[in-house]
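User: Sequence recovery, please. Input:
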């Protein structure tokens, strides 16, 4: 994948995975957007393109209103300097708190983005559900096992079609393709592409099977050396408690050996916020929009 110098951008291609991954390993990012998998899978929605800047990368996108935004610089030796140059071109979005605080000191305006801030949990908490505060979660798991006798499997090619069928059913229930649910339709396409490209994108998946059929699945990958990020999680709502099951089983399988699990943002949806808070996050990875005053 050949790139131009900032501010000339080119569309992101799968051939850029190795280059992105090398620069992201250098950065050890903390926000869920900054994986090549995430950027690539959402490129159709946000029109993501990339350019070279200061030995690293700038990524440009368009929000749902058609306004240009930039993700934080990737793989640069001086992120403050690179971000200042980028802010002269367009607003920066999904900027982690440590960088936002430094940019404020350089005279840029930072606006807190609570709806896109990530929920980060101790991996041990999601795997073992320890102590009194997780008593209800453990009870749900026990009841589910007794009722349904499920099987958990690491996602392999023979399970992909079952995951696709579940995703289709989920979209039917949620009316993904109504105009007012455009974000669900966008996610539908991203999930299906992720199922096609697990290995090239460095992703892993897991599935819950009931009577031989996929009843839930999750997909994620490494965000940094200590953090695993869950990008997608889908389940058949006809099985009460199944989201708790895929949450725990996938964490135990895919995130073992990591200190933290990032389960992304709540997008300002109250039900999703309550569900994420019910697992007692270790912290929020706060994000900001950055603009020149």
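Assistant: Recovered sequence (293 residues):
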């Amino acid at each position: 994948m050949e790139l131009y110098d900032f501010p000339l951008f080119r569309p992101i291609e799968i051939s850029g995975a190795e280059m992105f991954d090398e620069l992201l390993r250098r950065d050890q990012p903390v926000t869920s957007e900054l994986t090549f998998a995430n950027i690539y899978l959402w490129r159709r929605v946000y029109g993501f393109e990339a350019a070279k800047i200061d030995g690293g990368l700038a990524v440009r996108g368009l929000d749902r209103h058609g306004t240009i935004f930039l993700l934080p610089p990737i793989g640069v030796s001086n992120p403050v300097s690179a971000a200042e140059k980028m802010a002269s071109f367009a607003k920066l979005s999904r900027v982690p708190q440590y960088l936002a605080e430094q940019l404020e000191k350089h005279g840029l305006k930072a606006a807190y983005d609570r709806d896109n801030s990530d929920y980060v949990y101790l991996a041990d908490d999601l795997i073992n559900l320890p102590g009194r505060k997780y008593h209800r979660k453990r009870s749900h798991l026990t009841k589910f096992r007794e009722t349904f006798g499920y099987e958990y499997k690491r996602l392999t090619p023979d399970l992909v079609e079952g995951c696709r069928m579940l995703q289709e059913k989920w979209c039917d229930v949620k009316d993904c393709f109504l105009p007012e649910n455009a974000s669900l339709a966008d996610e539908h396409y991203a999930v299906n592409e992720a199922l096609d490209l697990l290995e090239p994108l460095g992703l892993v998946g897991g599935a819950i099977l009931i009577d031989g059929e996929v009843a839930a699945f999750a997909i994620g990958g490494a965000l940094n050396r200590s953090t695993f990020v869950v990008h997608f999680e889908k389940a058949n709502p006809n099985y009460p408690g199944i989201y708790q099951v895929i949450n725990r089983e996938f964490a135990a399988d895919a995130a073992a050996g990591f200190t933290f699990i990032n389960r992304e943002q709540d997008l300002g949806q109250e039900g999703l916020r309550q569900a994420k808070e019910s697992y007692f996050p270790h912290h929020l990875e706060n994000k900001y929009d950055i603009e020149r005053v």
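Residues 157-174 form the longest helix (18 residues).
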